[in-house]
Amino acid sequence: MDDHYTENTKTFVPLENNPQIMTALSHHLGLSPALSFTDVYSLTDPSLLSLLPRPCFALLFIAPETPSLIALRDAEDAQLPTYAGSSAAEPILWYRQTIRHACGLIGLLHCITNDPAAGLIMPDSALAKLREEVLGLEPTARAQYLYDSEMLEAAHAQFAAQGDTVAPDALTYDDGHAFIAYVKGSDGHLYELEGRRKGPLDRGGLAEDEDVLSEAALRKGPLRYVEAAEKAGGEGKNGQFSCIALGITPEAD
Q1: Which GO terms describe its biological process (predicted)?
Q2: How far is CA 64 from CA 1, 4, 76, 138, 186, in A?
Q3: Which listed residue (103, 110, 156, 243) is catalytic?
């Protein structure tokens, strides 16, 4: 899925979808310590879902780029116009990805610079400055802003080196996974945000009391990919799907 990159494209060492790493990077950039990421161990088991902090501000979901996922995505993108939104009045903030292996960073930004998490960005932080400066940019200019950001590049490098596994070679690594963020837009709709799509995907309305971990949101969002993999004969088994949730930081015991 990296056909649009060239050998001269800026390339990052991939981030792990690890709640500790993503939380630490978020706080480093300027998200309030009041929010943190937590592992989601099941998208269907009510008892496990009930253990997660609510309301849930955002989900960061990893899906393997299997034939079924790619076919689902390509069929959908073929029907969509290229997104050109650039106003603060837009229900969400979306970033096009132009940096190779920055899927995790783009997914993280989708989670922490959209509402409701955006309301808990620390004033005068690097993240507050970034959000203010990109909000009115059209998607190409917004992507270039991220591409040129030395602050983001340095922060990404610092935290990519802190994962549980040895950091892979940035130029030869082929991850084969998509980082997909889910947020509830200002219009009350569930949005699927991935920087390599044509734009944000409106997955439909949610009730006022439904967050992105609600049964309706999970059905409209990540479970679409899990079910497509199951119908295709079990693609994506063996833990290839994973998810972390952004919510209120639990109080220490």
Answers
A1: protein deubiquitination; ubiquitin-dependent protein catabolic process
A2: 12, 19, 17, 29, 29
A3: 103
